[in-house]
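User: I'm designing a mutation panel for HTH lysR-type domain-containing protein and want to avoid disrupting the core. Could you give me a predicted structure to guide residue selection? Please restate the sequence first so the numbering is unambiguous.

Assistant: Good idea. Sequence first, for numbering, then the predicted structure tokens:
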Amino acid sequence: MMETLLKYIQTIDMCGSFAEAAKILHVTPPALSIAVRKEEERIGMPLFDRTARPLRLTRAGVCYASHIEQLSRLEQSFADELQDVVDFRQGTLRVGGTQYVNSFLLPPVLGQFLVRYPEARVELTEGNSDRSIALLAEGQLDLTFGTEAARAEGINAVPAFHDQLLLAVPECFPVNRTLAGYALSHAAIAARAYGEGDSPAVPLRTFADTPMVFLSEKNNLYRRACRICADAGFVPQIRLQVDQFVTSYHIAQSGIGAVFVSDQLIAMSVPAPMVYYRIAHAQVRRTFYALSSRVRFVPQVVRTFLCFFQSMRED
């Protein structure tokens, strides 16, 4: 009932008349007018200024619309929670992630999760982090991942997993000839044999004149990479910028430039004609957070998946 009233009021306010709103709502103007009038009589105040053309909400109407929208969300949340009690771990898990997360980090976990809970359904959406967080806030996603804990009100952030940035340089670049003692192989990275005790960190300033592939300015990794280079004492020679992390690595393999890339991405990809180097900087270790809504009901299937995901990453 509240949802219907809210829709009526919002449509009348948008159209500026009962007649036009009735066309959109597929009801007769008298029926729409009666429904609004009954609610006005119930609260004892007019919701619309009927002397204005077009119609506009009164102060009481603005207040009413705001609060009934909140009540409508609570009503929907209550219905969702009741349904969740019935379904328990059944339901749809709506996850959003970047190409990197969806292609390399989620598949092994999703595969085992669906084996454990075959009745669950999964909808996977791909896009940049900002877009996924916006969809989460709008209620179109249940869960997404980001390298920065979301500061937006109503977003819950829980550490989910970590990765480490390395510098990948095309084998054909002459700079590699003087750095053989720092070079890491694909096999060493896959075996995670590249800690401080396993290999020295490369003097990053050696790459001051090396062309690089960077992500676009809106990406968190762009800011990280710029900071890493600045602290090494140089401005990176950016030859090309792209939007997706995985794309930057694949393009760099063609010999266009060096690239900052995740150890996870390297380990889970086929060996490439690249030389890898460990970097000594606090910004190379990234924490990914699982982001969910604080203000909307989080279904049991989502909570179960998050616990399952974290347990697998810990193993």
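For picking mutation sites, this is relevant: Residues 231 and 281 are 9 Å apart (CA to CA). DSSP finds eleven helices and twelve strands in the chain.
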